[in-house]
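ok here's the first one, seq then struct tokens
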Amino acid sequence: MSSNYIPSNLPAEPPRDAAQGPVGFPQAWPAAAWGGAPVAEEPGIPWGRYLAAIRRYKWMILAVVVAGTAAGFGLTRFLTPEYQVQGTLWISDNRAQNRGPVQGEQLLGNGAWADLLKSSTIMERVVRRMALYLWPAAPSDSAVFAGFEPGPGFRAGSYQLRIDSAGAKYTLATQEGTVVERGAVGDSIGRSVGFLWAPAPATLGRGRTIDFTVANPHVVAAGLLNRIDVSLPERSSFLKVTLTGRSARRTAAILNAVMTEFVATAGDLKRRNLTETSKTLEQQLDSAREALRNSEAALQSFRTTTITLPGEGMATAPTPGGADGGVGGDVGNPMVGNYFGQKLQLEAIQHDREALEALLRNPSGISADAFMTIQSARQAPDLQAALGELAKREAQLRTAREIYTDQHPTVQNLIASVQVMRTQTIPQILR
């Protein structure tokens, strides 16, 4: 019986080495068994293979490059560029200067300067000064809006100003076509919607339609506040300000206006602080002058009383510079020194009591300077701590009044706190 024989082109299986162990897995055929010579790999980087791949896929690579370039160019036509301008302000640190023992309160801390620059007051001033709430549709119409300001009853929106062919009448309407106001050229325009605007007839021309948009200055100031960034590095005196916008020139002009307004506001605050400091120092000088007068009067009264006291058989009268505190009697007679020492203590206690009673009758006069001439008060730790706290809160109140009005919650809270210290805390300690 014969069987079908299919010839195989596979090379004969090479003989296995008995030392290799039992056959468990197929092994690769060597290149010599297939009739081919071994391929030697190129040393280093195979540039030939890379160039061959580029030649093979050159049209695909070219298509990807062209498509990416076209997509990038198309996107740039729809994206609006944004510009970023930066400025730096130097904040002087007066604490580092040794100006003597008498100094005023610090105006603002380093962190508070950044808050002042980003305050709504400065932003609204810049918005009104540069008329950032107004956008003419055509930049050539900017001369028409010279002197335009928002007034009472201001209504934001988009408007059209139409001038008739004779240049004698105008019509103010919204973009939807609703007529807001009609009048004669040369008169005020937009009084019914809160516009303070009286353009010159020569700038309006004849037969023109002027489109423009106005916004609430508070809203524009809030938007400007979101676009500005302020940073003050720790232990640095340079305040860095950054502003982003769509127009490089206009953005730079806005940042310059913000920095100028900040410098003007800071200078005004500093002048007010110096004025308040001078008033405080003047009050302290008056208190010291009054205390000196009282001390001189007490000294004169003491001298008069000392001269008229009975000698009690003593040969010498008390002389200044004695052994007991500088106002004793004869060195050989201690009774005189004890007498005058106790008399001085009694008079000092009586004087302190009268001064304290006067302060209790008028709590509004309680301050740290009022206790400078009361010796017993200077030796009371609790009272000195309360007076220190009162002085601190009074300084905070003066600083707050330089920034806010008396109706602001911060000022109201500080006024109430100072009043409680004067009418309750300190009188309880004195009693």
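and now the second one, same deal
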Amino acid sequence: MNANTPADAPLTYRDAGVDIDAGDALVERIKPAAKRTMRPEVLAGIGGFGALFEISKKYREPVLVSGTDGVGTKLKLAFHWNRHDTVGQDLVAMSVNDILVQGAEPLFFLDYFACGRLDVNTAATVVEGIAKGCELAGCALIGGETAEMPSMYPDGEYDLAGFAVGAVEKSKIIDGRSIQAGDVVLGLASSGAHSNGYSLIRKIIERANPDPQLKLGGVALADAVMAPTRIYVKSLLALMQALRVKGMAHITGGGLTENIPRVLPEQLTAVVERSEWPLPPLFQWLQKEGQVADAEMHRVFNCGIGMVVIVAEQDAGVRPCNCWPPPASRSSTSASSKTARAGRRPSWSEFRGGIGVLSAPTFPQFLQIEGQIFRLQDLAPGARSGHAPGPGSPPFGSPCCGAAPGRWLN
């Protein structure tokens, strides 16, 4: 109740802390952003009691795929730095990237915005970011809920949840069952820490107390930390039309070590050569300032790889890797080894063995919009979990095909 309201005066919802007019103003403010995301299948969107979406007739046996997620404690940094323009894209990315893994095309998205006191400008900025994420994913922002709940959240803070629904042809569901030894694991570059590991990031920032404008590889720390999660939908849907994708893993909570095994058959192990992609400056800084062990980095952060794609060797655009069994001797003067020492990325003509960085001509060009693509390693026979290499595989941490020592990340 307003302190200036007499004790016997009639009460309103606003006196209790809920501003209906502000909620209505927000709905009107975000309608243009939501409209930009509409698809032909949307029959009724924002404003009704429920949104209506017609399944396209292009599907013969459509299977719906759903996902839900939030942004997590990255929001605490958004509050602290007053940076609300990227977390909406984070919210969309976490769900649409998840359902993409099973081959689904995201169709529509709904959001839930909860706060203690509704600030229309802040909420509109967040929802406009959600709409941008939906545009990047090609899905419709079909509805949502704004909940103003006095005393539930401190002033200036809010929480987000998102819900995505997509569809995949039943015969084209990607479930990893066709993955076999010798298939290739490709890594698509992340845009940063995405939306995972932020409790540890915040702890490191609290300890280091850095200037938010500290430059990391030419980018301010605050910009690097708040960079929105990359959305891989459009390029990977195009890839699925061009060749057979056997499996995908969205590298979220659990990092590389826990997410890649989720898509592998029980008898297979993914061999990831850590030396095959550069650790981005943000992760270098986090590891140094937090004195974070390698194993902890790999199970908390994406370490520069936001999505993993598994394809057959002949579809990877790279030459076979003869790692199993390893050759009796390896030349340390191969073209790729010389290139690595010189600090230059190997070209296709210089590529040797099976663990080089993929250059643009060796993979469909439409994937280049998502950043660099790295060949992480092949799949080997062996246990799906645990850290023991499979029979006949190189020992933990050993060089593979003349490359620098890497790590088994099962």
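notes on #2: The longest strand covers residues 158-169. Residues 318-370, 383-410 have pLDDT under 50 and may be disordered.
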